[in-house]
Every structure is written in structure tokens, then in C-alpha cells.
Amino acid sequence: TNEWSQDDRNFIKDTIAPEVRISAPALNSEVMATVNVTGTCEAGLNVDLFLTGRGSLGSTSCINGAFTMPAQLAGTDGTKNIVAQQTDLAGNTGNDNRNIIKDSVAPRVVISTPTSGSITRTGTRITGTCETGYNVVIGGSGVGSNTTVACTNGQFASDVSYSSGDGAKQVTVSQSDRAGNIGQDSRSFVRDGTSPVIVITDP
Fold it and tell me: Of 29, 26, 45, 54, whose CA–CA distance to 85 is shortest?
């Protein structure tokens, strides 16, 4: 008598890689050391982030076809290549990459004149040096309202009015770059709008 047996098993052929795409930050955008990476992905599979030449940035879940994850950009400032990757159960790998620019250095903005402690009646003219291409905001507790001026050829200048009341007036100048770094400088001046009192005592 010939005896035989059999077993059947079904397998699933899958040659299609997951589709993962980086949505933000934008291509060649300037960012600080930590950036939030977002994108689309295949739900149910983790998204792995890598920094080319520096290794893994971590892993996050793909929920409802989307992912978001903060990434710490190690190393010096300059162009960085971020890779988002997904691997399915069949071993197919899909990825996307994007260049961004790490910028951790704040603009250098400095008040040149007038000197600290200068006394004027109601305001003064502020001049200084700055990083060309970014506006300079002049504010602080000692001004009546903020003023925004352009930085041209590395310099800025603007008349400012002090806030009400005599006394010390703190003026702050600041610049923000495209990555969000903020540079600033402050200087204290004196408002004296009170005329001297002259009294004739004799004869």
C-alpha cells in the first residue's frame, strides 16, 4: 500500500516598496540644530530617519499615512541630507531624501552710537552694524514703539522716540535669520525732558 501525505501553504508575493515622502522642511531651507521632519508614508510601518554620513536619527510610527519626528542635526553647520525610509515585511525598502542647511549661528547686530548713558530730551538716533539681508528691529522697554529698518551694507540707522517719563531707557536691537536664530544687543540711555529751574534770589 502506498501511503502519502501533503501540506499546502499560501504565500504572498510583494515586490512593491513602501512609498515614503518628506514634506517638510522645504528643500534647502535653513534650520537650527533641531528640526521637525514630516511627511507621508505607508501606514502600519515605522519610518526610520537617517542623516547621511552621521547615522540614525531615530524611528517613528506612520499613523494614518503620515509621520512627524524631531531630528537633531549633529556636526558642523552646512548642508545636511536627511533620509526617510520604510521597509515592509517582504523586505522591500522605500526611501526619500532632502537637503537642508543647518545654521546655528545668530546674526551679529551691535549698537555703535550713541554711547551708553547718553542724555537726550525725547529720543535719539541709533546706528550700528548688522548682517546684511535681515531687518533690524529696534525695541525694548525704553522705546515708545518698535521700529523695523533694513540692514544695508552691514549697517543700520533709525531715529527712535523714548517711552514716556524721564530716566533710564533700555533700547534693544535684534535680527532674526531664516533658521530662526536671534542676535541682539542692548544699550541704556537717559531721557531728560525737564528744563533746569532758575530762580533769582537777589536782588
Answer: 45
Per residue in 141-153, pLDDT (tens digit) is 999 999 999 999 9
Beta carbons of 127 and 199 less than 8 angstroms apart: no
Instruction: Report residue 116 as a C-alpha cell.
Output: 551708553
d(CA 183, CA 8): 70
pLDDT at 15: 83
CA distance 21 to 166: 59
CA dist., res. 48 & res. 87, Å (int): 9
CB atoms within 10 A of CB 171: 23
CA–CA gap between residue 161 and residue 191 (Å, rounded): 10
Asked if 35 and 70 count as a contact pair (C-beta separation under 8 A), the reply is yes
In this prediction, residue 9 has a pLDDT band, given cuts at 50, 70 and 90, of confident
| DSSP code for 106 | P
Instruction: State mean pLDDT over 48-66.
Output: 94
pTM of the model: 0.79
